[in-house]
Amino acid sequence: MYDSEFDDLLLPPALASRESRLIATVADTVLVFAPALLIVPFAVTGDETLMGVGAVLAGVAWIALVVYQVWLLSTQGQSIGKRWRKICIVRHDDGSNPGFVGAVLMRGFLPGVVSAVPYLGNLFALANVLFIFAADRRCLHDHIAGTIVVEATPADPAF
Question: What phi and psi, each to the nearest 5 degrees, are found at residue 116?
Answer without folding.
Answer: -85, -10
